[in-house]
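The step that takes the researchers longest sounds almost clerical: writing a folded protein down as plain text. The outcome of that step, for a single protein, is printed below.
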Amino acid sequence: MLYEDVTFDGNEDVLISLGDAGPNRVFCAYVYENGEFSYKNTFESISFDHVDYADKTIVGFITDGHSYEYEAKYAYEDGEFILKSETHYKWDDELDKYVVEE
C-alpha cells in the first residue's frame, strides 16, 4: 500500500497494489474527497510508475523488457484520471539506447 497525493489537493490518497503485469505495476486508487476515500477505477488503467509533483501528473510506464517502452502522463480531472500525453520509445541498436518513436 502506498500513500500518495495523486489528486494534488494536499491530501494523501491510498494506492493498493493489484500485482505486477510482467515488469509493469498495477494499482487501484482510493482518493480522499469530502472526508471519505472514494474508489476511482480509472487509476487501474495506469501502469503506475511515479507521481510527478512538479508537473501534477501521474506517470505510467510500460516496457516489454528489452525493445519497447511507453510513458503516459495522467491528470486527475472531474473525478477521473485522464490521459494527457504519451510517448513511445524503441531501442536503437546503433545508438545503444531508447529513442522516441516517430
Remarks:
- DSSP finds no helices and nine strands in the chain.
